[in-house]
Amino acid sequence: MSTTPNSATRKAQEALGLRLRELRKDAGLTGRELAAATGWHFTRVSKLEHGVQAPSNEDIRLWCEACSAEEQIADLIAQARTVESMYMEFKHLGDTGHALWDLAVRQGKAEQEGAARLASAVAGHTETYVRSRAMSGIKLASLTMTVGDPQEAVIGAQALKDARSLRSRRAADDLRDLARRATVFERIDEVDELRHDIRNVLAAS
């Protein structure tokens, strides 16, 4: 069975988090005790263990020192870099997808390639990289709205969900552009609902 980009990235993050959790348990520490030893809020420990947040090299060092497992530092950092390299791959897809968006929308070229790259970027980014996922998702929705099937552009709903947590002028500008492109198809119920949701997100930002 094939593995989607999102599930591959998620599994890699979760595997790293599992190793961190096992180190903590082997050291006989609770999450709050490890947080106290590292100077973190206890919720940070949970986020790292569940792969919601990616650890920095310093995070790994502090974690291993608190667990008296310094010999694990180098290997865990190498594993974290593997996860980071996966993120960079999807970031590259998103960046090139954004560039192809201009060609597709303004010159009618490379529509499918641009959409494919943006879709792969959206699929590859997990909750750890929600900003990148939101930016690519908004562009994918506006591209689909312009040169594809407007009803399929409701994929922008996930991007809107992600964008609610952002404070980004660029994201806001892209959302306004998506709303403008959707105006032509406002009689389609799904598109009209998307425009309504965009207004709500922008009003709250």
* H and E order: HHHHHHHHHH
Distance between the termini: 41 Å
Radius of gyration: 20 Å
| Backbone shape | elongated
Give the biggest beta sheet.
Answer: none
Assembly context of the chains: single chain
Structural class: mainly alpha
Strand content: under 5%
Task: Give the class-level CATH name of the largest domain.
Answer: Mainly Alpha
Give me the CATH architecture of the largest domain, please.
Alpha Horseshoe
Number of helices: 10
- Mean of pLDDT: 88
Approximately how much helix is present in the residues? Answer: over 70%
Number of DSSP-assigned strands: 0
Low-pLDDT runs: 1-5
| Domains, number | 2
The name of the CATH superfamily of the largest domain reads: Tetratricopeptide repeat domain
Domain HTH cro/C1-type: 20-76
GO molecular function, one term: DNA binding
Protein name: Helix-turn-helix domain protein
Pfam families: HTH_31
Structure description:
The structure is a single chain. This protein has 205 residues and is mostly helical. The protein folds into two domains: 78 residues, lambda repressor-like DNA-binding domains (434 Repressor (Amino-terminal Domain), Orthogonal Bundle); 119 residues, Alpha Horseshoe (Serine Threonine Protein Phosphatase 5, Tetratricopeptide repeat). It has ten helices and no strands. Helix 1 packs parallel to helix 6 and helix 2 packs across helix 3. The radius of gyration is 20 Å and the shape is elongated. The N terminus is likely disordered.
